[in-house]
Specification:
Order of helices and strands: EEEEEEEEEEE
Distance between the termini: 40 Å
């Protein structure tokens, strides 16, 4: 079993920054790709970013590329999402997820409870 706990969400003005963190326990973190997803009210959950087990491969949704950065610290079992130049449309509940393999592009089988990000205009 894997437990994922997100933190770092909050209210920020447009143009501001936030850093989300997700701590993993219960499975070897360093063997899993990790991802961030988000879901806004009335919308489906969407992919934001993912990172492979070494941190050497990172993929981003087109809507966040150049503004968001995903990273990981395997020694701390933590994955981060640095979000800069936030826009009102970035407001959503952000979820951390653990992949079933080491590589990006695969299935995500464990999810955190989510952290709320609100961006005011």
């Amino acid at each position: 079993q894997v437990q994922l706990v997100e933190s770092g969400g909050g209210l920020v003005q447009a143009g501001g920054s936030l850093r989300l963190s997700c701590v993993s326990s219960g499975r070897t973190f360093s063997s899993s790709a990790m991802g961030w997803f988000r879901q806004a009210p009335g919308k489906e959950r969407e992919f934001v970013a993912e990172i492979n087990w070494t941190g050497g491969v990172r993929n981003y949704a087109a809507s966040v590329k150049g503004r968001f950065t995903i990273s990981r610290d395997n020694a701390k079992n933590t994955v981060y999402l640095q979000m800069n130049d936030l826009k009102p449309e970035d407001g959503a509940v952000y979820y951390c997820a653990a992949g079933s393999s080491r590589f990006t592009g695969g299935k995500y089988d464990y999810w955190g409870q989510g952290t709320q990000v609100t961006v005011s205009s």
